[in-house]
Amino acid sequence: xxxLSGLCxxxxxxxxxxxxxxxxxxxxxxxxxxxxxxxxxAAGEVPVGALLVHDGTILARSGNRxxxxxxxxxxxxxxxxRKAARTLMNYRLxxxxxxxxxxxxxxxxxxxxQARIPRLVYGADDPKGGAVHxxxxxxxxxxxxxxxxxxxxxxxxxxAAVIQSFFADRR
Length: 171
Ligand SMILES: [Zn+2]
What we know:
Layout: H1 2-42, E1 49-54, E2 57-63, H2 76-88, E3 96-102, H3 106-115, E4 119-124, E5 149-151, H4 156-170
Parallel strand pairs: 3-4, 4-5
Antiparallel strand pairs: 1-2, 1-3
Helix pairs in contact: 1-4
Bound molecules: zinc ion.
Zinc ion (ZN) binds next to helix 3.
């Protein structure tokens, strides 16, 4: 009995260790996404930043590029998906995590499903156009075969502050 409970404690501790390791990683990666968001703001773009991570390695990082590229689809998430797919030479982005500072819109959520990205980590909610849970719930639609694991609220205050100060400066 003692052996059994010892084993349970061990497993429990290991699970907690894995969970906190993952949380630390999420925060670290979100800090890189925030750097991309700030760089986008400096370039006059709406400051959203994203990363595509595979096996703990950053495959691609970018901010929004819609104005610079004259491309309405050049949201940070789309840019990193395109770059990462070229790097992996595969249009399916298996075993990857998409980090983005703001809740993805319907276009980006749709592209995540096309790419079969298994995990999304985002910072702040977007009540006006968020397509994960704020406005639409595209990723958790019951008709979808592909399921995305979602972690939200990572450095949410910092992610929201970058957007808010960008628009405050423009008023
Ligand atoms: Zn988008």
